[in-house]
Amino acid sequence: MGTEDEQRSGLLYGVGAYGIWGLVPLYWPLLDPAGALEVLAHRMAWSLGVVAVALVCARRWAWLGELARQPRRVGLLVLAATVITVNWGVYIWAVDSGHVVEASLGYFINPLVTILLGVVLLKERLRPAQWAAVGTGLAAVVVISVGYGRLPWISLVLAFSFGTYGLAKKKIGLGGLESLAAETAVLFPPALAFLLWLGATGRSTFTAHGAGHAAWLASAGLVTAVPLVLFGASAIRVPLTTLGLLQYLTPVLQLALGVAYFHEPMPPERWAGFALVWLALAVLTWDALRTARRTRLRAAALRAAARDAAPCAAPVRHPGP
């Protein structure tokens, strides 16, 4: 598959992943009365079952041996599994506790966090517009903190955990299905142990509220696995900057749900903070589009110059016998 085809498919995978994540706040209330930790454990356990079935159907196991011989990639997988667990747990708790808007802010500032991680960890150099966007984003966090009377810690934890997860996935370089299988294999033992403990102490809701409730909890595997597979497939096909742009879809949907469906309050200072975030993202988007256009024009000019130079090349003459 060519590079352009890969990036196009990666874009579609990313839209699917972020669209599902944007609508998932509608799903978590269906799992009541299960608490956030029980829901998290079911996500971790059932996801492995879903991915294992997919791998059996696809007969894709050869990557296991190669991965086992690369301790660095295994370490990155453990890191990815750890930070996505933090992300899942905080997000489920935020929705259950009526903080959908604050959770959406985390995914709004995530592109800015992705850029910061690129600077700090990958030694990437920022353009002036990118620095302006990051500075505006920091100002937005200050304004929102004043409005809340505290740091928006839910937003910051979600942004940094998912930004780290995306970076780890980029470095691992596994396909979406394979990477998720490895991550969920790491998460499965502690999740299963916790669920067994809940059952033994009589605190589990899995079998206490009927077959319908059990089915909803089990479906957490699909709700978790499908967008993560799509995200993993996107992460290895498109640049981190493109992932940052795609991430806008999730918080837009989440904010709309938080305000219009869950009826969370949005006082003026909160709107002001979000406006600053949107300004930062607008600057970031404008700069990314401008840079991409310049890159395309430069590549087209080089191809045209190569074509023009080709007919002028003198033929090579070999001496006769």
Compute the CA-based radius of gyration. Answer: 23 Å
Describe the sheet with the most strands: none
Secondary-structure element sequence?
HHHHHHHHHHHHH
Strand content: under 5%
Number of strands: 0
- Helical amount among residues, as a percent range? over 70%
Cα distance, first to last residue?
Answer: 46 Å
The parts where pLDDT drops under 50 for at least 5 residues are none
Structural class: mainly alpha
pLDDT averaged over residues: 84
Number of helices: 13
Q: What form results from the Cα inertia axes?
A: globular
Q: Would you kindly provide a written description of the structure presented here, covering whatever features stand out?
A:
- This protein is mostly helical and 321 residues long.
- It has 13 helices and no strands.
- Helix 1 (3-23) packs parallel to helix 12.
- The longest helix is centred in the C-terminal third of the chain and has 42 residues, at 268-309.
- The radius of gyration is 23 Å and the shape is globular.
- The protein starts with a helix and ends in a 12-residue tail after the last helix.
- The relative contact order is 0.18.
- The model has no long low-confidence stretch (mean pLDDT 84).
Defining key terms:
321 residues, mainly alpha, 13 helices, globular
In short:
With 321 residues, the protein is mainly alpha-helical. The mean pLDDT is 84.
Write the layout of secondary structure elements.
Elements: H1 3-23, H2 36-58, H3 62-68, H4 71-96, H5 100-122, H6 128-148, H7 153-172, H8 176-200, H9 210-218, H10 220-235, H11 240-246, H12 249-261, H13 268-309
Helix pairs in contact: 1-10, 1-12, 2-4, 2-8, 2-10, 4-7, 4-8, 5-6, 5-7, 5-11, 5-12, 5-13, 6-13, 8-10
